Predict the 3D structure of the following.
Amino acid sequence: MSHEKFAACIDDCNTCAAACEHCSVACLSESDVAKMADCIRADMDCAAACRFTAAALARGSDSIAEVCRMCAELCERCAAICEKHSANHCQECAKACRDCAAECRKMAA
């Protein structure tokens, strides 16, 4: 199947989306939720982008390069925001975002 060549990127996108969903919900449990608003918004955008990208890859979209570039940019933005917070869930999310961005950049090349 054609989607098998995209398996690593699909996996990283799905892993990142799950990490972002977890991070956004965990941020809501922080003592000062207002300080986490930027992180929550970035998590939500990144999770949506990752899910969209995984679906585009799975169906072998003709727009893979563009979609992967967009996803990489949102993942990098989310990672940069999450890295500003010391919470473990933010640090774990940042790593998943960086991993996904790197894999998406490969697909976009």
The chain is about 75% helix and 0% strand. The domain at 2-108 is CATH 1.20.1270.360 (Substrate Binding Domain Of Dnak; Chain:A; Domain 2). The mean pLDDT is 94.
